[in-house]
């Protein structure tokens, strides 16, 4: 089936088109540049930007895929989790399209989309097959989640999530502390080059057994952010220059260490020999490097989709929509709405 997928949960307006597990188009517009002026994502600006970008992004996707809107068999859309206003724009647009075309609507979980996107890899790279069960580490500006996926449509378990800041958010906040612009991830990466990752022993949140957490594999990054802030203040109080390269490298190492250690501990403890990565923070080369080393040492098969499919996009939502259609699932109701806190376990709303 030919599926159109719409994604508007954060600052990317994504429209993707797939036929089954074949990727036909993945058009994306981002309000990142506009958001950068405010040093972070402003929800109202994101919602308005989606409204403006949706029609041109839809046109771009149809042109890229070489299909007409009337060819579409079903419309899939992210209904959560994410920013409420931003989600509402996508859900409203998807409903309008589905009704106008007389096609079914499938409301899809954003996090499950980050996993399902792996189905879209090229056929010569094993495309169309999701090797399960797998642990999935999803790290972006809005989420940091560790999932156990036994079945994409019916069995997704939350192993852990951040109890405070998301990993990408921590990069953004620490960059700001160091006087670097938004988005902070690439800035920290650049600043860390030449720095000593062992220069400063920053804390690794929620790694000790005594640490209180709701889930076995929860994450915490606010203590790390505070430790960086205190370190910077102490330098300034002593009238010394802040060693930006060392701080950036040590901070990045702390984030990468805790993300990869927990993901591989989950694989080991649950006896799952597969780990899938997703989310915008996967752009971090050090994260990919340490994950690769540690996965190899643990005998875990690591999957890293291409970066364009790791960041938020419509194709990942279309991919899950196609699975729902092919499994003969009933469409979502016309009364389905945006749910900013949709749990990872709810694949279809
Ligand atoms: P969502 O949370 O809904 O997935 P988002 O827009 O917040 O969406 P992405 O667009 O997937 O997230 O990723 C953006 C985040 O990734 C930002 O926080 C940014 O700082 C971070 N990031 C980008 N490049 C890097 C990098 N090289 N290293 C670390 N973090 C990075
Ligand atoms: Mg983004
Ligand atoms: Fe995301």
For this entry, give a set of tags.
five-stranded mixed β-sheet, 42% helix, 349 residues, globular, alpha/beta, binds magnesium ion, single chain, binds fe (iii) ion, cytoplasm
What would you say about this model in short?
With 349 residues, the protein is an alpha/beta fold.
Task: Please write out the topology.
Blueprint: E1 2-7, E2 12-19, E3 22-30, H1 32-36, H2 43-65, E4 74-80, H3 84-101, E5 105-109, H4 110-116, E6 134-139, E7 144-151, E8 155-161, H5 167-177, H6 184-192, H7 222-237, H8 244-270, E9 274-278, H9 285-298, E10 301-303, H10 307-310, H11 314-326
Parallel strand pairs: 1-4, 4-5, 6-9, 9-10
Antiparallel strand pairs: 1-2, 2-3, 6-7, 7-8
The structure holds adenosine-5'-triphosphate, magnesium ion (MG) and fe (iii) ion (FE).
Adenosine-5'-triphosphate is lined by residues 9-12, 82, 140-143, 168-169, 171-172, 183-186, 189, 279-281, 283-284, 311-312.
Catalytic activity: L-threonylcarbamoyladenylate + adenosine(37) in tRNA = N(6)-L-threonylcarbamoyladenosine(37) in tRNA + AMP + H(+)
Binding site for Fe cation: 110, 114, 312
Binding site for substrate: 138-142, 172, 185, 189, 284
